[in-house]
């Protein structure tokens, strides 16, 4: 009997302790919730609503301007002096300026042949063209292959130079800067830069260079990127949607209104005199291209974006590569903003409204606020208001404003409109990494200058989708193998952690909530889980 009594008493004792502990925790929560948690969360809501309004007004402004540009602005050939360069048998190539083509590379095993071949195929007099392959590869086998490819084209009469450095100091900026110091570059007037996965059409220089020749105030002509592997998987399709808005709207508006935009680091032609006037390439951030563009703009130089001049390139097709790329693209601008904001304010050569545009619109809203509000509002603050119902988020801030922003963002890629909803969820996932990178850049933390070269796999898979069966079979044999990761290597704990948090908030809202946010939260949970388990690069999108 005593044994039975002991067995019955122990569970009741444990249950009593558990209930007492739960009661104490609940009492402590009630004590701190009203004076501390609720005001802090309410402040977070106000800050997020303010950031949402800033982003909303920016998107509306951009939308209005791009409509006006498309309807009323003259084409670049009409706005600027433009006259195609004519071939002259008597003059030979002497009426063509000398152009330098720089191709920075780092262990580009899969794409070096295509990029070098495309550069060597440019329609320009051979005695007025210098191609410079800047190889920072650390793999001896890759270095040898690239050097042999350069020698092969040199044997065909192409003026191509293979350059290496002892160290990778300054990364890409260091390589470009070193390349411009070569003695044979001194007689070059312009330099065009192509990353290793870019393949310009033969007429690229003939379409871009005349703007620089006849308009001495223009420092940069930027072309648009097109993506050979956009349909490879859902990851690449999502990237296409984001980048198409950047080119279709942001670059076009900047070019048309202030003759300023961020150089994209590739597929652009620079006036070498403008590079020198701006102080040359600097490696103080991971966005050496944007750094140079801002400094050149502060010197009074103008930029021109040509939306119909397009260059094929490749998107990262693995989630790991894409995360590293986004870290660099988010951390670098924030770090550059920290270093240049006072320089921009004190500058005497540009007008007040251009300073406002560069500081507020270009840097603060697009490079900082856009990342922070997406993550902090929709992945942190909004879910927390479900757990603390005393804090209310107005419907216009939770639904109406983000809906309008999303619709405005979708104008860049009409063919992917049916993927718009998942694009929102995917951008929310990536905003976590972008927000983290933005804070690292602003605070100049440990990873502020981290540079991981984006992995390129080549576009063999894209080629295999077209052509006859025999050609496909040949391409399949020569296609580079996609990297296979172990399941443990695929796991991303940060994404999985947020998936658990959002799932808990969704369940709580389903049971106790009044706003039906659980629908969004469960869908966002699925997106975080897909990214957390590393499968986002394996999903094939519908057409």
Automatic annotation (TrEMBL):
It catalyses: GDP-mannose + (glucomannan)n = GDP + (glucomannan)n+1. It is an enzyme of class 2 (transferase). One of its GO terms (biological process) is cell wall organization. Pfam families: Glyco_trans_2_3. It is a multi-pass membrane protein. Residues 190-387 form the Glycosyltransferase 2-like domain. CDD domains: CESA_CaSu_A2 (cd06437). The chain crosses the membrane at residues 43-69, 368-388, 400-426, 491-511, 517-540. GO terms for cellular component: Golgi membrane. One of its GO terms (molecular function) is mannan synthase activity. It is found in: Golgi apparatus membrane. Gene3D superfamilies: Spore Coat Polysaccharide Biosynthesis Protein SpsA, Chain A. The keyword Chloroplast does not apply. Belongs to the glycosyltransferase 2 family. Plant cellulose synthase-like A subfamily. This is glucomannan 4-beta-mannosyltransferase. It comes from Quercus suber.
